[in-house]
Amino acid sequence: MATFVKDLYEILFNTFGNQYWWPVDTHYHLKQKSDPRFEIIIGAILTQNTAWTNVEKALENLKKNRAFTIPALLCIQEKTLRTLIQPSGFFNQKAQRLMFIASYLQKQYNGDLQEFFSQDTSDIHQELLSLQGIGPETADSILLYAGNHPVFVVDAYTKRICRRLPLSTTSDSYDDIQHFFEHELSSCIPEKERIPTYKEYHALLVRLAKQNCWKKKPSCDDCPLCTLCEKLL
DNA sequence: ACCCAGGCGCATG
DNA sequence: CATGCGCATGGG
Predict the structure, then answer these.
(1) Buried b / exposed e across A44-75, counting CB within 10 Å, b at 16+?
(2) The overall pTM is greater than 0.85
């Protein structure tokens, strides 16, 4: 069992390759003198139960209107923000929540994300959870992809996949699944690889969930992943 | 016309 | 604790 989680990662990576999640336009942020980490925070909120293609449209609108910074969100009209992020759905609550998070970070950290993310991982986690509109997955996504903290992100896909894989030791709860992956991986990957592996692993699980042979049938005959699972069942 | 997406908060039993 | 519902858009 200990190596299965690692084997699965290898198979997924060899099958699907790098997923390039959350690519941020560094050039844009340099030019705008803005913090790419804030763009990831915005993206994490906007993508809640929403297709990423829709989020991209919203992000493009924000980019064109230079609304990727905390100061920009502090002075924007809520009505304007709603219009900009409209393609990502749930725009009323999302607009409100984005503005609140911007004002929170401004008040508590003077808008300094470096300072915010330099705190202890579990402290940041609790702090994020206390904000309206940020639940366990969004909090961990922000921690991992924006703050480079070592937390394994669990989403609906991850749970669904866990139910189908021979991972009977885990319950269905977020914390148990997260702990399972973190614990299994800790024994077989070097410390330095943890964060990049967590980032890629989560993206690969999402990629897997979209694979047809996983959606339709219990398993197919020819893909390497199903072959691995058959062997273990 | 339906179903779903890189969830969350709140109201019930 | 756990289930159900509203939130809203765009693509299959």
Answers:
(1) bbbbbebeeebbeebbebbbeeebbbbebbee
(2) yes
